[in-house]
Amino acid sequence: MALPRELKVDRKASRRKDAKAGKPRIPKRTAEWRRPSAKRVRALRDRLREIYGRPVNQPHGDPVAELVRTILSQNTNDRNRDVAFDRLVERFPTWEEVRDAPTRQVESALKPGGLAKTKAPRIQEVLRRIGDPPDLEWLREAPRDEAVEWLCELPGVGRKTAACVLIFTWDLPEMPVDTHVHRVGGRLGLFRPNASFEEAHDEMLAITPPADAYEFHINLIRHGRAVCRPKPKCDECGLSRMCPWRKARTAQGERVG
Known about the structure:
Largest sheet: none
């Protein structure tokens, strides 16, 4: 399938547009932070691998399903997301049926996932915008920046959702930043303190080797769920000696973990 007309843009023109719009350039170093070296990123990857293993991506090749599944994951846990997704595809065997069904019926199918009154019309609108029949196969060959920009113009789709579509569907190198990655990455100094999610996405892409994207993403999430929680278990952390956040608070006399 050919690229949509709106994706056929000049990349230099796009960069000029960003500059004109005043999009800030992320510094590699500030008074309190320095972008981690490739050696440090590899060391963190290796330590996480020792603790959690080396996850292997199994891309499923269904971008529409991934887009819907990721929208369903917003503000809920994986179990509720999966229950809602399974109920949706069981009740409506095709995406055209989901798109054209009465919204109340879609809401009913999605109820176990939470926020069904918001997600049902959002998913139906997304399905209306991605073609008839709904199709996203062209994203696989699209330039990465333009594909992400196009996806982010869909209702309810941000950088994390767009990144999930690309990496989980085709194993394209992306670094989705959820709350766990944002918290753990911030504490490890992978991006600036108090960086926005947008900036964190850009930084994680800049420092992560493409071949390590899936592994690093999954293991940061595992670490965030198991140890580096909002109230961290620093005494149990296998990364404690590599953590500037812990070192800074220990130096200030704080008790952490």
